[in-house]
Amino acid sequence: MKTLLAVDGSDNSYEAVHALKYFARAEQLTLLHALDVPRPAYPMMLSEVAEEQYKTLEQSMREDGERLLDRVQSLLPMHAGPSTKHLQIGSPAEVIVSMAEELKVDLIVMGARGLGPIKERLLGSVSHRILTLARCATLIVNGPVKAMKQILLPLQGPSDAEAAIRFLQLKPFHDAIEVSLLTVLPSTQPPGPADAAAATAVAEILEEQTEYIEGVAERLRAIGYQAHGVAVLGTPSAVILQEATTLRSDLILMGTRGRQGISRFVLGSVSHAVLHKMPCPVLAFH
Prior knowledge:
Layout: E1 2-6, H1 11-19, E2 28-35, H2 48-75, E3 83-89, H3 92-103, E4 107-111, H4 125-133, E5 137-141, E6 150-154, H5 158-168, E7 178-186, H6 196-222, E8 226-234, H7 236-246, E9 251-255, H8 269-276, E10 282-285
Parallel strand pairs: 1-2, 1-4, 2-3, 4-5, 6-7, 6-9, 7-8, 9-10
Antiparallel strand pairs: 5-10
Helix pairs in contact: 3-4, 7-8
């Protein structure tokens, strides 16, 4: 598996480095730091003095970036795999996505950065853009990583299941993991006495979904994972977050659903809600 580790020197960035301890040895591990050097609004009006100041700032940021990459490389787990360091100037999200596509990586690993006074509601512009633009799986680390043994895998449909199985077939984890599969049927108003037929229909759908989720679990067991599944009624995002807390999940592995037009930058209501309130790292696949 080819992995791209994007670092920026933040606490969550270093936690992303630590997270590699729980992933399998990479066929190729790329360490990337993007330099977003501020430029004046009208560069053609730069005086020689301002141009010199800009070059001095860029050089200083380059030196800091090189030291960061050296430190990150020194902190890599022993089994991380062969690594190379890259420092590029440009918008971080665009630089990361471009390199991921150029190298055809399977996984981007990075820390979340919520910025500003409403950071509890925002994942961070860089993380959000990478999740929507990158074609590969992306691990977003939002705090201390304690282990990677208990994985919660919410499924929104057959396409999610197939994508999850494709990713897990890469054997991305270093140690054995247990996968808890979950599918949530959106709940409606409780049926009244005259709605017995509706209640029966819901029960039948829930039973069908339970059989389906167990079938996915069986496929995962066939490729070496401990897996079990459950289908429940409720509000999908709320149930996922509750299950992650109850199970003390080390990771939420889930699909994202980008759309067309303006909404292409929306990951889908369920994944969007989970990502913005994640109680543990989230590994998103497309």
